[in-house]
Amino acid sequence: MQNTKNAMRIAPSLLSANFARLGEEVAAVIEAGADLIHFDVMDNHYVPNLTIGPLVCEAIKPYATVPIDVHLMVKPVDALVPMFAQAGASIISFHPEASEHIDRTIRLIRDSGCKAGLVLNPATPLAVLDHVLEQLDLVLLMSVNPGFGGQSFIEGVLPKIEAVRRRIDTSGRDIWLEVDGGVKPDNAARIGAAGADTLVAGSAVFNGGRYREAIGAIRAQALQGRESMEGHPA
């Protein structure tokens, strides 16, 4: 990944898009300023919901002129990694609870030609990063419990974002810090101030129909929060 220290990336989640015209939705949010397309995969096993698979990823790939950010909420995970890599994923993230061997899954993602991300649920301890952070391109922190769109942001995740930001900065590596769940303009400043640089937003982007306005508002608030944090170091 390019060093984008000063970037604030917005990744609209297709979970909230109109599935009857998914290709058009992808093209529309990219035209409106999306930096990534967030692609949620749920298996009705690891999480209590069932969504979309590699064939849908392959179908939207021609419309996606930005990276497809695949979030695997599935267990087991390894068999699906090469399938999504072949379908056009640029980034593949998974939950440590879904892998028998976290290091092996990370290597599988990299060997498949994708960037590797690890996803931590609100109650997943940060100790899981102790031995794998150096291998990751992205850490995704869930700010809701995974399984459904439209949930409310869990405020208790903010200190966790700050703690992961410190770990990433100490590593000296260009690792993205992504936050997913209940993100909207009203809380984007706090999320940005905590240290996130990539925000997933589903209903906050798609539900109002004004994609450019929604993406711009989330980005502006997140950047304002970051600037406030940088102006008042701890």
From TrEMBL:
Native source organism of the sequence: Variovorax beijingensis
Active-site residues, as the UniProt record annotates them: 40 (proton acceptor), 180 (proton donor)
Protein name, entry field: Ribulose-phosphate 3-epimerase
Function summary: Catalyzes the reversible epimerization of D-ribulose 5-phosphate to D-xylulose 5-phosphate.
EC id: 5.1.3.1
Reaction(s) this enzyme catalyzes, per UniProt: D-ribulose 5-phosphate = D-xylulose 5-phosphate
Family (UniProt): Belongs to the ribulose-phosphate 3-epimerase family.
Cofactors, names only: a divalent metal cation; Co(2+); Zn(2+); Mn(2+)
Cofactor notes: Binds 1 divalent metal cation per subunit.
Gene symbol of the encoding locus: rpe
Pathway in which this enzyme or protein is active: Carbohydrate degradation
A Gene Ontology molecular function term of the record: D-ribulose-phosphate 3-epimerase activity
Key word Metal-binding present: yes
Lineage per the UniProt record: Bacteria, Pseudomonadati, Pseudomonadota, Betaproteobacteria, Burkholderiales
PANTHER family, A to Z: RIBULOSE-5-PHOSPHATE-3-EPIMERASE
Residues annotated as binding substrate: 13, 71, 147-150, 180-182, 202-203
Annotated binding of a divalent metal cation, by residue: 38, 40, 71, 180
Keywords from the named record: Carbohydrate metabolism, Isomerase, Metal-binding
Top-level division of the source organism's lineage: Bacteria
Keyword field contains Thylakoid: no
SUPFAM superfamilies in the cross-refs: Ribulose-phoshate binding barrel
